[in-house]
């Protein structure tokens, strides 16, 4: 098989950077180029960074210039505490539309598109099945900006896949992520001295470890996956049990008028409780991960394993502080390593 | 939130570079996950906890054998292994039949029973959680299929739904419509038999004499009952049933001669099978009522 030439959107995001690091170690990947509006924070060996504006206006030229056969869309925002509702729409819906516009056309070299989406598209409600498969419809309509924008982005991807039979479009719907390095609404809630829970509810949650997500994206790139896949660790755990594993105490939130009661906490930046998390703390969510497994993927962590791994790393950090040095991207240093004849490159 | 973007970009307080980058590969790994983790509880994927069930069985044992004096007929017709869909008639404003059937089968056959119930339970604080830990599952066809087909367990369903528990005492032992026969379709798809159970006594445990649709709407429940229990026991009547004698008759299991996991089953066949099961249960109920000498002593 021909070596792959990969373009990553959102290189400076957690997922973009991690995926680039993993891909540049694969011999089957010839070129890795990443674009973003800001400089990446991770150190790369052979990934090239190109600065782009929000609308990806250079993407059209870029994919053709580097003859990218695979595009990884790692820039979808799934955590609504990061940016405001309007920006979420801009990034997720308009961003995806621009991306698809750029890789379209008869002269486009792109043959595979891998998108990291989220199980937020299923929502979380009383009418949910215990396990969602990739084809299960969500129970109610989406009401939060991030869920709506993800559903719209996915609908564009579906249309694109339908119109371009020669392009493999893999949509990876990832469950709530926990891991040593990523901060998500769930991990932030678990890091509080008192962990919020909904009084009278004890929903079952499913999580996936951060490395398993990166491995799943690389797997989709290498295997040229086509279609929608759930990415989530085996099993579900009651929220009370997750809190117990963390060795924390729970703080009950009122099950009625919850948003009104917790609103001030969020405005004071004490606790971030986005509406998606409040729904999750009421009804939980479970997705069937067997489709990706049947394609040959093996998870490293089950839900319980991922929770333990996350808690262990948090405890270690609390005791000894940051164990690894931080790196900031310096373009001249990177340019030296990449282009100077003095640097000995292994092939 | 102008600063949100920076935060997203540079991760959070922790984003070390190159953490175990090489560990991400190779992609071919042993089939078993490296870290399955240790569980701290025994709640299964459906929300049922055997420990909670044990406590409930101990608490309910007295109610089961001394209050309702439950008696079974044909218990041997319930399979001791493999999936089966138990179908029973439903009665009483707050029905006592579900917990008694689940308790009876769990103590007699020593195998768990998952009881399907309406979604609105899940939305209720405390009640919803207890219901789930006690073996209750939201009545989604996918849930029923997985428990029957993948887990080979017993599932209990009341096909009449809230129509039966929300009916007046004057309509007792008149089976309502069995929905659209969805339970037959699930059993066909899962390749398991349907085991009908006729229940006598349930109707008299909490007879409904009036209901308020306005209050029901306000409380977001299917019906807001005024029961005879409330007249006798006051507000406590909401939870104290009358000590009617409860009898359960297990009918012959119904095996459908169709292949499991079909895309679709003929709608007419489903409706006919459902109607036949309903008729059999109705006949048996009348037979049991003919033999019943007293509501309280059976």
Structural description of this entry:
The complex is a heterodimer of chains A (347) and B (298). Chain A has twelve helices and 13 strands. Chain A has 347 residues and is α/β, with parallel strands linked by helices. Chain A has a seven-stranded parallel sheet with strand order 3-2-1-4-5-6-11, with helices on both faces. In chain A, strands 7-10 form a two-stranded parallel ribbon. The longest helix of chain B has 25 residues. In chain B, the strands form two sheets. A seven-stranded mixed sheet of chain B has the order 1-9-6-2-5-3-4, with helices on both faces. Chain B is 37% helix and 13% strand. In chain B, helix 2 crosses helix 3. At the A-B interface, helix 1, helix 6, strand 12, helix 7 and helix 11 of A face helix 1 and helix 5 of B.
Outline of the structure:
Chain A is an alpha/beta fold.
Helicity level of chain B, as a percent range? Answer: 25-40%
Largest sheet of chain B: 7 strands, mixed
* Overall average pLDDT of chain B: 88
Tell me the strand percentage band of chain A.
15-25%
Hey, roughly how much beta strand do the residues of chain B contain?
Answer: 5-15%
| N- to C-terminal distance of chain A | 18 Å
Tally of DSSP helical segments of chain A: 12
The oligomeric state of the chains shown is: heterodimer
Q: Please mark out the parts of chain B with pLDDT under 50 across 5 or more consecutive residues, or reply none.
A: 1-31
DSSP, total strands of chain B: 9
SSE topology:
The complex is a heterodimer of chains A (347) and B (298).
Chain A: E1 4-9, H1 14-23, E2 29-36, E3 48-51, H2 59-65, E4 70-73, H3 85-102, E5 112-118, H4 145-163, E6 168-174, E7 176-178, H5 185-191, E8 194-198, E9 204-205, E10 207-209, H6 210-223, E11 227-231, E12 237-238, H7 239-245, E13 249-253, H8 258-267, H9 275-283, H10 290-294, H11 303-320, H12 331-339
Chain B: H1 4-9, H2 50-67, E1 71-73, E2 84-88, H3 97-109, E3 113-117, H4 127-133, E4 136-138, H5 141-150, E5 154-157, H6 162-165, H7 182-190, E6 194-200, H8 202-205, E7 208-211, H9 213-219, E8 225-227, H10 228-233, E9 247-250, H11 267-291
Parallel strand pairs in B: 1-9, 2-5, 2-6, 3-4, 3-5
Antiparallel strand pairs in B: 6-9, 7-8
